[in-house]
Amino acid sequence: MRVSKLFGKTLREIPAEADTVSHQLLVRAGMVNQLVAGVYSYLPLAWRVLQKIENIVREEMDRAGGQELSLPVLQPLELWQLSGRGEALGKVLFTLYDRRERPLALGPTHEEVITQLVSRNVRSYRDLPLMLYQIQTKFRDEPRPRGGLIRVREFPMKDLYSFDTDEAGLDVSYRKMIEAYRKIYERCGLPALLVEADSGAIGGKDSHEFMLVAGSGEDEIIYCPGCDYAANVEKAVSVKGNIENGAPRKVEEVSTPGMGTIEEVAGFLKVPHSHTLKAVFYVADGKMVFVVIRGDLAVNEIKLKNRLRCTELRLATEAEVIEAGIVAGAASPVGLSGFKVVADDSVSSGTNFVAGGNKPDTHLRNVNYPRDFKADIVADIATARAGERCASCGGVLASTHGIEVGHVFKLGTFLSEKLEAVFIDEKGETHPIVMGCYGIGIGRLLAAAIEQSHDAKGIIWPAPIAPYHVYLCPLYREGTKVTEVSEKLYGEFLAAGLEVLYDDREESPGVKFNDADLLGIPFRVTVSPRTLQKESVELKRRNEKESALVPLAGIADKLKGLIKG
RNA sequence: CGGGGCGUAGCGCAGCUUGGUAGCGCGUCUGAAUGGGGUUCAGAAGGUCCCCGGUUCAAAUCCGGGCGCCCCGACCA
Fold first, then answer.
1. A86 with A174, same domain?
2. Are both A62 and A175 inside the same structural domain?
3. Domain carrying residue A258
4. CA A3 → C1' B31, Å?
5. Which tens digit of pLDDT belongs to each residue from A433-459?
6. Is residue A14, in this structure, part of any structural domain at all?
7. E-assigned strands of A265-349?
8. Residues 328-367 (A) near nucleic chain B, CB < 7 A
9. Which nucleotide's C1' atom has the smallest distance to the CA of A146?
10. What is the count of structural domains for chain A?
11. Euclidean distance between CA atoms A348 and A424, whole angstroms
């Protein structure tokens, strides 16, 4: 491709709208253009990268036994009501009406469609296992698109769905996919970390995410430097430890004038935070929930939501708390009734806690579970934090941020049950198909690759996904043989199967070099009177500082070798 | 949905406080010189000042309403 003809202009200045590095570089390199919030056009350079990523993904999916197909974007809303996930997705679902006023959704994903399709084509255990995938545009009306291509509302995504006869089969498919994903990230130059994840609105059991560790990442990862434990903070667990505070004593009331927060109460009574119990109030699907947790810990709303099995969960407003007759600042489940009480399992990790007295300015000492209060649910609902102990090895947990570049789920049978995707086993018995699903956002992978690999000058593409292999850069063409030689080289490179960006513009060396760096093409070949004097060209790798003179003869083959290697 | 910011030429911005009909840099086009890291000089084109309404002799500027975009949070397969 000749740069003079390439559609897309490079920008010197950083676009005002872009905050994230990958976003800035994508815009400056003339690769993407925003149409509305979270919706982008991909210009030729970006399109080439997307296709390369897509092909890598496709190859690995095929290798793992996947069969590619194409599914509708327009989906009847009923299908989402049938699966029950329409409600869970809520406003994320783009909806529209056809001319007959029939409600439709733009597919945010395709589990429902594929399950229905499979239910019509699979009858027998002989048809299983099965892996089907598609690489298509998905639509999600995200509450807040951000970070350029990191979180968008319309985006290309690969989804593979596995169908097995039993859990053991699902385990096999799941492991195959994790392996395939590892290869994909490796080929894209991304050191992705496998972390345990919450399965969210999609439901199901096991779930893992692949994370690219990056400061700009939206997700917090809790990991253990001492072992291989790593989890999304939504899911992460830690050792809460036992709090030694003597044998249970008799409850006594203490006056705590004006003391409301754990900070204040603990300070006033001169006890550590871990010797207190904290009460937090939530509204789950419209009902007040009373949550108790040890004073030094924080509630993890995702865990809480999962335990409550509710669709909507939010903190109760001050007015709602008062309305419910709760004494904010001095509340505890002791002696209270009429609320659903959820306790973090830390309430049984110690004795003689300080808790609210359910009277203004009053707290209780020596509160013990379960002696003094009961809970409807006792479970881990705490947020794991860096500095706490690892549940697997006892090491000290650390925290970092990451960009989610892949997510795999063991769906189980809930969708196949709802949509009646069943098979008949050897004994003639009918069972729901056991499902898994595995997604990779292609555009996000592109953005993540840039986040992972760039410098002050621009993008540094890993060769397998670079839009072009070689940037052919002639200098000082007028009155010299540079043009002649460059044109010849261009032809040779193309003939050798190299992907070449040929900067045939009348620009100064600075402009060309800076554009070459910005676009991040792995190899730059400079032709100038100076190099031609020595029958050579200058070869420079984008990711290295030094360049070298290389003889003209055989340069195409040499490049070919370097790119393959 | 809550909080904050922004909207003026293709891009980045100034002008708005104190109303008088728009300017700078980059880019683009023309010409010349230059020649290894965004080169210099000369000239030119390019604007519904986000939209609607109001105040005024006069609105980019003041007032009201709306829309859009970005950031933080909520949220987010």
1. yes
2. yes
3. 252-379
4. 24
5. 999 999 999 999 999 999 999 999 999
6. no
7. 277-284, 287-294, 313-315, 340-344
8. none
9. B70
10. 3
11. 47
